[in-house]
Specification:
This protein has one domain: Winged helix-like DNA-binding domain superfamily/Winged helix DNA-binding domain (Arc Repressor Mutant, subunit A, Orthogonal Bundle), CATH 1.10.10.10. A two-stranded antiparallel ribbon has the order 1-2. A hairpin with a 2-residue loop joins strand 1 and strand 2. The termini are far apart. Helix 1 crosses helix 3 and helix 2 packs across helix 3. It is mainly alpha-helical.
């Protein structure tokens, strides 16, 4: 099963980080069915599944209600499915954002510890 996190895009502006929602996240039918199965058959909580799959809990609970009504396969059927290339681009954007955040954290941490190692200097 291929998982795609399409919810956020990280922007760096003026030295700060802002997370922006990517509109119209599209999840495959297989992903929706697997998420519901993890709860109904696997005994997991919706919040656990949401955290594992990086999907909002409200989306998971919506899918569970749709499954109980027998309409899970109809959910979002009007949206165009993503191509493999689009899914790969979204995964790469997510990875790049994660690496940038880690890099920025390491820069700040190294500056902090460099200051701590020289207590007599002014910054």
């Amino acid at each position: 099963m291929l998982l795609v996190d399409t919810k956020v895009d990280v922007q760096y502006r003026n030295g700060g980080i802002s997370m922006e929602k990517i509109p119209n996240a599209v999840y495959t039918r297989e992903l929706r069915e697997e998420a519901v199965k993890m709860i109904t058959e696997g005994g997991m909580k919706a919040s656990e599944v949401a955290r594992i799959l990086s999907i909002p809990k409200s989306t998971i609970t919506y899918w569970i209600r749709a499954e109980k009504k027998g309409r899970l396969s109809c959910v979002e059927s009007s949206k165009k499915p993503m191509s493999e290339t689009e899914m790969e681009i979204l995964n790469l954007k997510r990875e790049l954002a994660q690496v940038k955040m880690e890099r920025d954290f390491l820069k700040k941490a190294s500056a902090y510890f460099a200051k701590e190692s020289h207590p007599g200097t002014r910054s």
